Amino acid sequence: MTAPEQGPVPVPEPARFAPEYPIRTERLLLRPIAPADAVAMHVYKSDPDAVRYVPYPPLELADVERRIATTWSNTRFTKEGDAVSLAVEECASGALVGDVVLFWRSENDRSGEVGYIFDPRAGGRGYATEAVDALLALGFDGLGLHRIVARLDERNTSSARVAERLGFRREARFVESEWFKDEWTTLLVYALLGDEWRGRRGRR
User: Fold this and answer.
1) Which domain holds residue 90?
2) In sequence order, what are the residues at sequence separation of 6 or more whose Cβ sits closer than 8 angstroms to the Cβ of residue 145?
3) Three-state secondary-structure class, residue 27
4) At 73, phi and psi to the nearest 5?
5) How far, in Å, CA of 37 to CA of 68, rounded?
6) Where does 81-175 have alpha helices with state H?
C-alpha cells in the first residue's frame, strides 16, 4: 500500500497584527491619525524647534494633509518594514498633543523602533513618556517584538530623558555619523528588551 500523494506544503501567512483602537492610558488616547488632525498637527510640525531632530523640515499644511492620507494612514502591521503612526490625544480636553510611531524593523530578529514628537505647549507633563510606554506595550505584547530601539540626535536631551525614564539603556554613540539637515550629527542608540520592559512594569 502506497502512501497517499501529498499536496504542496502550505506556506504560513506573514504575521499580522491589527491593534484595537483607541489605546487608552491614564491621561491619553492613542488612535489612528485622521484628516481632521491636520490643522492641530500642523501647529507643531511647522515649528522649526519642534521638528529640529525629526527627519523632515517644517511642514506646510498641505504636506501634513498629504502625509496623513499616505505615510501616516497605516493602522496595522502586515510585514516587516511597516510602521504605524498614532495621534496622541489628551483625554481631559480632547486636544492633540503629539504623535508617535512604531516601526517593525525585522521579523527574523523581532526588532522594532520607536519615534515621537510632541507639541512644545504640552511639554513638562510626562505625556511623551506615558504615550511611548503604551507604544512599547503595542510592540512587545501586541506585535511580539524582542527588542525595540530609539535613535536620537545627541543634542535631543528631552527625548533621551524619555527613553531613560522608560528603562532604555544607551548602547552606542556614533560621533558625527550622519549628515542630517546640513550638518554632521552624533547619533545615540538606546535599546530595550521585552523582558526588561516587563520586569520594570512588574516592579512598578
Assistant:
1) 23-203
2) 104, 110, 111, 112, 139, 194
3) coil
4) -90, -15
5) 9
6) 127-137, 157-165
For 192, phi then psi, to 5°, come to -145, 135
Q: Flag residues of the chain having pLDDT under 50.
A: 1-14
> Looking at residue 185, which CATH number applies to its domain?
3.40.630.30
Tell whether 134 is covered by a domain.
yes
The pLDDT value recorded for residue 203 is: 64
Please state, in angstroms and rounded to a whole number, the distance separating the CA atoms of residues 193 and 159.
19
CA angle, 5 then 10 then 13, to 5°: 175
Indicate whether 11 belongs to any domain. Answer: no
Who contacts 125 (Cβ-Cβ below 8 Å, separation ≥6)?
none
The per-residue pLDDT for 118 is 97
Q: How far apart are CA 104 and CA 107, in angstroms?
A: 7
In a domain, 157, yes or no: yes
Interior/surface letters 6-23, b for 16+ CB within 10 angstroms, e for the rest: eeeeeeeeeeeeebeeeb
**What's the longest Cα–Cα distance across the chain?**
78
Query: Tell me: the pLDDT tens digits for 132-150?
Result: 999 999 999 999 999 999 9
111 neighbors 102 (Cβ within 8 angstroms): no
The answer to whether position 9 is within a domain reads no
The C-alpha atoms of residue 171 and residue 149 are separated, in whole angstroms, by: 10
